[in-house]
Amino acid sequence: MSDITGSLSKLALQKFKHNFWGVFSFWFIVLVGIISVFAYAFAPDNSQHANQMHLSIHSKRPGFKVQMLTIPSSIENNQSVVDKLFFGKKNTETEIPITASYIKDHILFYTEYASDGLEGAEKELDLTSFSKTQVASLIKERTFLFGTDKYGRDLLSRILVGARISFFIGFVAVFISLIIGIFMGSMAGYFGGKIDAFIMWIINVTWSIPTLLLVIAITLALGKGFWQVFIAVGLTMWVEVARVVRGQIISAKELPYVTAARALGFKDFRIITRHILPNIMAPVIVISAANFAAAILIESGLSFLGIGAQPPMASWGAMIKDHYNYIILGKPYLALIPGLCIMSLVMAFMLIGNALRDALDVKN
Q: 11, 116, 123, 150: least CB-packed within 10 angstroms?
């Protein structure tokens, strides 16, 4: 039996490898996953939540360049390297966009950046307490590849950090839905009778409530926040998994290998977990890929409504909410870029779901 299972797995893997869009989507998802985990290592603005604001350079177009004066702080940053890598740097420095500067008698004279053709204020900074190395690194040219948002934050950094929420909500939500869905579906399908009727009643009641409305209710009950959204989305996605598992187990429990397991005196728990579930996981894997995409869309919708990830956390849905009115103000990229990111990631999960369905279909 194990040899047959191994052969079928190898055959499915070979079929998956021949699906161009499936393989492409797989590597795209891997790339997004790496960016999500190490977002602060890739982001030009590695401050926590990429939340460094410069209101004087708000809503600038992609490729915008400006001279940035960075004034060191006397406050020591005792963060560890791991903390900076995964949670961002606690910003203690002061950054000021400038248009001109010169040094005279150990005093730095600079002109602050002002938008809309205005002239910025002229200020000065005493350099007597700075070393030559510090003075040399005070002013650097900063390029904003994706431009800046309405608060003057680096849009590229916000996109990279925001990928973390959209990506990981899929994993957490699908994990929760699999645990609840497989358990409920297994109980209903294997034991039947009153247990099946009761579980199906719960499934039908949950199914009848609009998903977004149910998520909003759970989110309001648990409170607004990062993990609350993850749990809320996961608690609404188990119904589809339970229905699929129930149907598969009803079909599988009458097969000869299950009858033989009962005749050998195996307990119900072992029959379900060791014999039935491994043989019905193909459709569950496919529906999990679809649930990944659905979880990303639901989280984006919640963030757009203001009950998802809360500021200053970066979220693609919240970025669309903040900038959707800029579409008619001549700067549509502020909303289109996060929208395209959501679309690309959702499409990748849908394509990999289709590829897995074709690869695991024994009839093809």
A: 116
